[in-house]
């Protein structure tokens, strides 16, 4: 009888734990900013145009994302908005290693699925979440109504060359197939007041929701959190796209970027100023 009682208690605890994990939900709004360092030849691009280009690039990286989460899963996607216009008479082509359109994370199973559109084709990147070795600190600060604690991690990342073409002149710089490595320190601020181990993009693994991330070039900060909203939100793993691993997708994007750069440069276009910027890393 005692054994049956113990088994019943364990089953009930498991059941209610499952229910609690499913019932607990939240929606967090994040704003992103990225530092863009670019030098333009003043003999080819007027000062006023330089300012327009830099302002436009700044706006390209000022975006709003929505993170919907429960205790085990999350969906992170960009909020729809109108794109920033190009300066008059200027065509700017930007390429990168692919930005995520829908990022699904399952921290229980340590996996993620990233539905990503790249050059008009949809990919479904499915892989394991890369473990993050966080160093927890005692420093605190408030973000909105939440007390946040500092955590950092250090990693080696690959940096690709930037390339630019102005007035149809062919720049010898291209996507470097042998990227340089750089040590990057990422700082996170998380709050135990929201007991989930997730955050924006691929960040996870802290004892509380990550409300701010800064890696030296990009800042992601939470501007609003709603816990257990009135209307229940279903979190579903994306299914659309060609399934690849992260390493396969990286190879595909680098190849495509290189092909488009070569096509653009070989066209010898002279109808106005053309600036092409590749941002890697």
Task: Kindly describe this structure.
The chain has 281 residues and is an alpha+beta fold. It has one domain (25-279). It has 3 helices and 14 strands. It has helices at 2-23, 47-60, 246-267, and strands at 26-34, 63-69, 73-78, 90-96, 102-106, 111-118, 121-128, 135-143, 146-159, 180-191, 209-214, 218-227, 242-244, 273-279. The strands form 2 sheets. The chain has a 12-stranded mixed sheet. It has a two-stranded parallel ribbon with strand order 4-14. The longest helix is centred in the first third of the chain and has 22 residues, at 2-23. The protein is globular and about 55 Å long. It starts with a helix and ends with a strand.
Outline of the structure:
The chain has helices spanning 2-23, 47-60, 246-267, and strands spanning 26-34, 63-69, 73-78, 90-96, 102-106, 111-118, 121-128, 135-143, 146-159, 180-191, 209-214, 218-227, 242-244, 273-279. The chain is an alpha+beta fold.
